[in-house]
Amino acid sequence: MTASSTPSMVERALAVAGLTKLYGEKRALDDLTVALDDGVACALVGPNGAGKTTLISILLGLIGADAGTADIYGDPAGSIAARRHIGYLPDVPSFPGWMRADEVLELALRLSRIDSTSVVGPLLRAVGLEGNRRPVRMFSRGMKQRLGLAQALVGSPRLLILDEPTSALDPAGQRLFHDLVRSLRGRATVLYSTHSLDEAERVCDSAIIINEGRLVRQSSMDDLIREGQGLSLDVSGPVDRLVDDLRAAAWIRSIDRAGNGPRETLTMRVTDLETAQRELPGIIAATGAALHSLNPRGLADIFLDLTGGAR
Ligand SMILES: Nc1ncnc2c1ncn2[C@@H]1O[C@H](COP(=O)(O)OP(=O)(O)OP(=O)(O)O)[C@@H](O)[C@H]1O
């Protein structure tokens, strides 16, 4: 065996190849190929209708694909073996309202044919619900989501799939949930579906970005942020000259111009944000242009760049 054909030591948690799902004429997934290594926390990011739920439904074996394959730890999606690898938390989990949290987990254990209930205490402790004796109907949405997470962890799944888990939570509940998922890293490979790269960055080290059923990008969060970093400025005056001078700067990656009339918005992507911020005021002053506002580009801008959304 040559060095180049030596198999990777890192096990594949997920291997999706050429996955295609049609709803009539609509290609909900269109030749999607992505892979996840064991142990990573990866966001599945895309705008409404991108195909996130369709992909998750195929991974869970709820629907079949029209073409392509999806393997979970080597087992084909939809098989019993693949299902056993997965813990799943939907966006709004529901439980019998009269049950207590410990009873919900005991039921999940029984349904998974696990006799020992010794994990109930540690799981409830992990999600901050230890000692809570109230029925679930009295839980806040955040508490239900945390209980759902504990339920998804029953049976120690190797792949934890979280489907827009904070969509029903307020900002405080979201932050608590993000912290919790981060603290659980290392227990399982995580696939975290979200609309937001900001949320992805809080929880995950990498992201799969899809749009219209196709892969747009799979990358580490650090690389996404580095490549998308930039500044947006509103200027007036000799904008043509300013743009020429900015294009000559060593740190410029690209400039887009928008707006007509006296004020224009320049959106710059840069290779070195610190140097750009240091040198920019001097360049603007030298051209005689007036600066009305200056803002760093955020992850929301990077998301819109990648998915072609309206600004
Ligand atoms: N059962 C269905 N019948 C017809 N079209 C469907 C069906 N399910 C999904 N679609 C279409 O497939 C595309 C992908 O939908 P999907 O729900 O997977 O996207 P999503 O990324 O999860 O979106 P959202 O973020 O809004 O939940 C969309 O255009 C959607 O309208």
Automatic annotation (TrEMBL):
SMART domains: AAA. PROSITE patterns: ABC_TRANSPORTER_2. The keyword Nucleotide-binding applies. It holds the Pfam family ABC_tran. CDD domains: ABC_DR_subfamily_A. It comes from Flaviflexus salsibiostraticola. Signal peptide: none annotated. Belongs to the ABC transporter superfamily. Residues 14-237 form the ABC transporter domain. The keyword Zinc-finger does not apply. InterPro entries: AAA+_ATPase, ABC_transporter-like_ATP-bd, P-loop_NTPase. Keywords: ATP-binding, Nucleotide-binding, Transport. This is ABC transporter ATP-binding protein.
